[in-house]
Amino acid sequence: MGKFEDMEFSLIPEERYEDVIHHLRNNFFADEPLNSAVSLVQPGDPHAELEEHSLNTLKDGLSQMAVHRDTGQVIGVALNGIQGPDDLAASQAKLTTLTDEKFRQIFDLLYGANLTLDLFRQHGVDRIFECRILSVDKRFRGRGLARELLRRSEEVARENGFKVFKEDATGFFSQKVAESVGLQTVHELRYEDYTSPDTGEVIFKTKKPHESLKIMVKILQ
C-alpha cells in the first residue's frame, strides 16, 4: 500500500467547514507554538477569533484537506488564503477592537513582522497565496502528510496563477516542512528577542524546539 492510499485529498467544500473546525480544535488551536506559549485555548475547546480567522480563510476556496477513506474523518488540512496589499494594515487595525489580549499579542507579532516586508512591491504582485494553517491529526503524524498538503497547496497556487507562495511558519516542524518543498526564509524573528515594551519581558516563552517565527516564500513563476 502506498503511503497515502488510506486517504483522499481535495479542496475543502463548504459542507466540510464544520468538520475542519472540529479537527482544528482537537489538533491545532492548542498545539500551535504561539497559542501554546500563552495558553490561548485548551485542547478541544472553541475559540471565536481563531475560528473566524479559519472560516474567512476557507471562504477563499483554496484550502486542501486529507480525509481518511474508511471513516470519512478530516485528518489533515492546509488552510490557504489570498493576501492583498492592504490586508495586513486592515487586519492589524481590527485587532484593537478585540477583547482577547492573548489573541491580539499573537497577531500583533505576525502582522507586525509581515509589515516590515514589502513582498508585493518586491515581486510586482497584487496578491499573495498564503498558507495560514497546516495541521495534521495527532494519530497520522510522521507519515509526511503535512508535506503532501503543502505540496498540493502549491499546485493550487500555480493553477490559480499566483506568483508568490508564502507561509508564516511559527514552529520548528512547520519550518522544516516548508523548507522541504522549497520555501526560503525571507525574515526571521527569534521569540526571545520579542519583548514587552513596558516590562522588557519575553512575551512568547515557547517550548523547545520552537525558537523563532520565519516568514517563508517560494516564487512560482
Automatic annotation (TrEMBL):
<feature type="domain" description="N-acetyltransferase">
    <location>
        <begin position="7"/>
        <end position="209"/>
    </location>
</feature>
<dbReference type="Pfam" id="PF00583">
    <property type="entry name" value="Acetyltransf_1"/>
</dbReference>
<dbReference type="InterPro" id="IPR016181">
    <property type="entry name" value="Acyl_CoA_acyltransferase"/>
</dbReference>
<dbReference type="GO" id="GO:0004059">
    <property type="term" value="F:aralkylamine N-acetyltransferase activity"/>
</dbReference>
<comment type="similarity">
    <text>Belongs to the acetyltransferase family. AANAT subfamily.</text>
</comment>
<dbReference type="InterPro" id="IPR000182">
    <property type="entry name" value="GNAT_dom"/>
</dbReference>
<keyword id="KW-0808">Transferase</keyword>
<protein>
    <recommendedName>
        <fullName>aralkylamine N-acetyltransferase</fullName>
        <ecNumber>2.3.1.87</ecNumber>
    </recommendedName>
</protein>
<comment type="pathway">
    <text>Aromatic compound metabolism; melatonin biosynthesis; melatonin from serotonin: step 1/2.</text>
</comment>
<keyword id="KW-0012">Acyltransferase</keyword>
